[in-house]
Amino acid sequence: MSDLFAPLTLAHGPAAPNRVWLAPLTNTQSHPDGRLSDEELHWLSMRARGGHGLTMTAAAHVQAGGQGFPGQLGVFSDDHLPGLTRLATALKDEGSLASLQLHHAGNRSPRDLVGRPVGPSDHEKSGARAMTGDEVAQLVEDFAAGAQRAERAGFHGIEVHGAHGYVLAQFLSPEENRRTDGYGGSLENRARLLFEVVRAVRERCGPDFQVGVRISPERFGLRLGEVREVAAELLLSDAVDYLDLSLWDVAKQPEEEGFQDRPLMDWFTDLDRGTTRLGVAGKVRSGQQVTEALDRGADFVMVGRASILHHDFPERVRADGSFATRTPVSPAHLADEGLSPVFVEYMRNWRGFVTEAS
């Protein structure tokens, strides 16, 4: 367990106190206009106090029209700065690195929240329309502006959300992206937007500001071999401090034929990573699983459900390396762990997570 709780240096800014980090978790607790709520502040502050080496916010949308779910944290306006500043200060005061995740839902934005959504190409199912070239350029600008707001608020850094079929992953997907300009066609073109966003964030923020990127290698029309190529380039980029791989399950085998001779995680841990750190996320719910992920080559582990269940999951693992979470739990347990009624209700979407009884 000594490696797990040793500091992890990053290419920019301060080291993380340990290798157990809080994953960015949708929770629908913020105000409708994207301002921070007291409930969101309380929930995240508890996780920082519970020993997470880095505490990451839920996805914060960089454009009003890029909202992905109700009650989403915003970073598209200076009106959000007072709340974001309170949040960054609280997380740092608890001894954790503080990171804000930057997000745009693309064609996954609900119509009842944003009107007609936009994406890389026209999208029949959602009714989204293709973004113009000027809108793509504005998106890069708005990601960079969101990062600057995070820096002004006092966060140690940001994470660019390029996973889970949201806008940057939509551009990367040959199924979602049917453009014929410089952002469509070849892998180089489809990945262009992601790299432009990362480069713009790094150029616009200070030398000690940390930049992470989250990607997922499967689903939403992505090709594992292509995502591996993108990951390899990101890992060797001087602009990126850490790459966060959302794998759905760190122990799973790839779904794509031709890659099933080794676990999904192993297709990335063998890549040259230079000074960039590599982390993994996906069904890590015990101290043993955290340790195993590090033993298999990860530099850190992003923990989601286990840290919802126990705000002090890292400290419990430090005290007992065999500690494992159990579900279902009662709404009262989740309330004691800092979840608001809205968040508890959202967790009912996860089958077998919350009991019916109080």
Condensed summary:
The protein has a single domain, classed as Aldolase class I (TIM Barrel, Alpha-Beta Barrel). With 358 residues, the protein is of the alpha/beta class.
- CATH topology name: TIM Barrel
The CATH architecture name reads Alpha-Beta Barrel
Low-confidence region ranges: none
The CATH superfamily turns out to be Aldolase class I
Labels describing this entry:
two-stranded parallel sheet; TIM Barrel; alpha/beta; 13% strand; 14 helices; 358 residues; single chain
Q: What does this molecule look like?
A:
This protein is α/β, with parallel strands linked by helices. The chain has a single domain (20-326), classed as Alpha-Beta Barrel (TIM Barrel), CATH 3.20.20.70. Helices cover 34% and strands 13% of the residues. The protein is built from 14 helices and ten strands. The chain has an eight-stranded parallel β-sheet with strand order 1-10-9-8-7-6-3-2. Strands 4-5 form a two-stranded parallel ribbon. Helix 1 (38-49) runs parallel beside helix 2 and helix 2 (81-93) crosses helix 4 (133-153). The longest helix is centred in the middle third of the chain and has 21 residues, at 133-153. The protein is globular. The model has no long low-confidence stretch (mean pLDDT 97).
